[in-house]
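Final report, closing paragraph on structural work. Over the funding period we assembled a curated collection of sequence-structure pairs, and we close with a single example.
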Amino acid sequence: MLSQTVVDSLFPADLPGSEHWEYRYPPRSLPAGAEVTRFSPSPTGYLHIGGVYVAMIDLDIARNSGGRYLVRIEDTDQARVTEGAAEQFAEAFDYFGLDPDEDELTGSYAPYTQSARQRIYLTYVRELLRQDKAYPCFATREELADIGERQRRAGARPGYYGQWAIWRDAPPDQVTAKLDAGEPYVVRFRSPGMAGVRVSFTDAIRGELTQDDNRNDAIILKSTEPRLPTYHLAHAVDDHLMRISVVIRGEEWVSSVPLHHQLFDALGFERIRYAHIAPLMKQEGGSRRKLSKRRDPEATVSFYMEQGYPLEAVKYYLRGLANGRLAEMPLPEALAEPIRLSEMGTAGPLVDLVKLDDISADFVATLSGKEIADRYIGWADRYDPELAQLVSAQRPLALAALAIDREGVPNPRKDLRKWSDFRTVYGYFFAEIFTPLTDPADSRFGGLAPELVRAIASEFAVNYQPPGPVTDWFGQVRELAAKLGFAPSKKVYKQDPDAYPGSIEEASQVIRVLLTGTRRSPDLVKIAAALGTGEVLRRVQAVLD
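Its predicted structure, as stored:
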């Protein structure tokens, strides 16, 4: 065992004791049953939608119990920190309504970034070294590789333990000599685990689990500067001092629970509750796999922001993945109902964008035209500024367009699923970005002869009557169709297709394509009314010019 003098020489002379941090971060004064949760992303790349999923659950559990929800950036792996990741996290939290209850300026348990908490961790590493619950390890990369190879040949479990832990029981003078020589070292936790021992714990989602106890002497302090801890020690210290009551994290950490319990015990902390969540999955053919940031665009949070999914729709969808009962409720009730850890499954839920699109379309259909315009402009100011400016400048036109087949009807349109659809669904209303059709042979005219397309456009333009209280707007279409030899109905056309160039539907479709650029659009009369006579004639006459 190293002397306290040697141990203390490894740390700053002014490093406070653990009692300082216990006083600095006292137990919280919260109501009985209040949960304190934390979402702890690592700034090593774009935020995964699974991160939003976990953060949403963290927030819900805390808020519905009268507790607190925190965001703590886990950046102790400095080599993997990606520039701009923290800023992207903050933007995503704001977009999805996941801002924490505490921050660096207002929180009593700051700092909330692990790299800024180095002195705290060093205090507890020193405590473990003083109590011989940890030790310096000077094993080189080559020595560790040799140990791994010998374990493989011997059929032994890999790791740094027992006879393979070559510095665990090294004589103090040998350790001191290495320290005096300035040799690089890590600090390893001295695991109390024994071979063959099984331990049990209760997971808040999975119930009672039993595993082999941890025997590995895990690294708790790295050798490189700045001297920062590994996740194992950092999360134990932070969750204790921030007074977290339940840690909600991915199922990949289940196997680490025995080690983490050993660390809590060694540090004199009360053990924490864990809830291990199954990962979000994707269906691929006949199999399922984890949703991947490398392979799946929908895995990144930026995808949902760029596509412009309404927040309520995404929250409703994710909450339904967490608790199936919420997916069966109407959206307002589902957003108000609490999420329950006990109702979360152990099989990863499938992410289905088709279902999300349907949910989003249903939600948008409940909004007024004014709400849609306001929300769209808020999104498009960043993602489609050209159209955002047009919608703002021509708000009456935008509201008239949004009212078509939406307001005052029992089944409003559902072709607007997300804000990125707006340009396709409503862009043709704005003359500045609409390109009139000039080619009568365009495939959107359904294969009609170019001369017929021109004839329809000419007749329509010459005799055009704008929509009004006494105007039979479609009557003019029927008249030009009859004049040009089109059948009065689809049924009549099918009875003798050689006698007609098409039915009135084909003639009407030409007008629709000329006005909107698409064969699918809502009420054509209302579109013409919104566009106005001048714009209607400009678009129709383009194919003649």
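The longest helix spans residues 49-63. The CA atoms of residues 404 and 526 lie 7 Å apart. We thank the funder for supporting this effort.
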